[in-house]
Amino acid sequence: MALLEQQINLVDPSQLLRPEEIYNGKPVNAFRDYSIDDDDPIKSRVQNTYKLMHTHQTVNFVNEKMQKWLKFDHAKSTIKEALLKLNDLIDESDPDTDLPNIVHAFQTAEKIRADHPNLDWFHLTGLIHDLGKLMAFYNEPQWCVVGDTFVVGCDWGPSIVYRETSFKDNPDGADNRYNTKYGMYKPHCGLDNVNLSWGHDEYLYRVLKHNGTKLPEAALCMIRYHSFYPWHAGGDYKHLTNKMDEEKMKWVLEFNKYDLYTKSEDIPNIETLWPYYESLIEKYMPGVLEW
Ligand SMILES: [Fe+2]
Ligand SMILES: [Fe+2]
After folding, report:
1. Which ligand is closest to the CA of 145, given by its number?
2. Domains: count for the chain
3. Is position 101 within any domain?
4. Where would you tag: which of 71, 102, 126, 264 has the fewest CB atoms within 10 A of its CB?
5. Can you give the residue range of the structural domain that contains 74?
6. How far is residue 247's CA from residue 251's CA, in Å, rounded to a whole number?
């Protein structure tokens, strides 16, 4: 991590949250609007995805998904092929965009590149961070691919979206191994020792490790925890995290403003951008990967 501290000038996270600030023509507090409105088709879609997620993502479920996906025997493809496949995916948990995911990938990467021109690994991280969503093309429902993640195996964090209503039918809530503050964990055991709900963050992190990526540790943190909003935005789970996780959070927050606030109708010219990003793929994650 030390190397990375020298490379990035971190912004004050409070700067990210000023409600009057405008990103891409949209005030900050208009992003991540999870209010309930049954007449709004996007809001209903988002709420329904979370209801399914919060009902079915249990300790057992996550263990099963890890066994299934961490064999890396589903596909063989390059990073570019995987990105192109994302053209066909619209994230049903996202209230801020209904553009194909590859557009979001380039929007995120290009804004990072504008702000951090010398950190080529960071540009590539922006481009690939959602590639774990490929699971949706292999019969996984979106509620175990997309959306915010949370810790399984202990009390659900208070800041999780739809926290009060959405978990009512999750069997772990009635299981006294899991329904206490610490559940199956030790105090400050660290995020490395905690299981999150299954989704695209952990999957891509594991795919990259499995295939021997040369991306730095900060990139891997950003990828692994970018959807863990209850932790990095909500302040939950401090009783489980350790000093190392506080360092990780800096990188995740630096990444997240690009992930969130670049969602807009401005479509980048993807064809002209490919040669630059292909050179980064060649540098950090070349060849055919096992997925
Ligand atoms: Fe994501
Ligand atoms: Fe994203």
Report:
1. 1
2. 1
3. yes
4. 71
5. 31-290
6. 7
